[in-house]
Design brief:
This protein has eight helices and no strands. The chain is mainly α. The chain starts with 7 loop residues before the first helix and ends with a helix.
Length: 141
């Protein structure tokens, strides 16, 4: 027999979102543009940027936020103050500053990879490993 789920918390969250935000199908336009960009195999930066621009235009129209609020949420994250703990916990997130350690690690790794490739170190390491590979099994080992 399957276990039943307690859906009372779902109703609380749904009602809290409806009371705090304007919810409309038109607001799916920004993520839809990003999904279509991915499906059309457009480069990531323009596709995501287009989604951000559309969302930044729709934010003041539908949610009553100003451009400063949008920039602040992107940089520092969004802090939800609905008064409902479940909704606030769900929506409160970090922004670019919260991801900075991951971003800087990625940039440093790309810099190291570029230096290793340009100086020929990467090619020498790959040749050393490929010299020992005699079969597909050897490539895995």
């Amino acid at each position: 027999k399957g276990a039943s789920a307690d859906l009372s918390n779902v109703d609380v969250i749904a009602n809290g979102l409806k009371e705090s935000f304007t919810i409309s199908p038109i607001l799916l336009l920004a993520p839809l543009v990003v999904i279509i960009s991915i499906a059309k195999k457009l480069p990531a930066v323009p596709g995501i940027s287009l989604g951000i621009i559309i969302a930044a235009i729709m934010g003041p129209i539908y949610q009553g936020v100003n451009f400063g609020d949008i920039l602040s949420a992107g940089l520092n994250g969004y802090v939800s103050n609905t008064g409902l703990e479940a909704v606030d916990k769900l929506l409160t997130t970090g922004g670019l500053n919260n991801m900075m350690s991951s971003i800087s690690l990625t940039i440093i790794a790309m810099m190291f990879g570029g230096i290793a490739e340009e100086t020929g170190i990467l090619e020498a390491i790959v040749k050393k490993f490929l010299h020992r590979v005699q079969s597909v099994v050897g490539l895995v080992i």
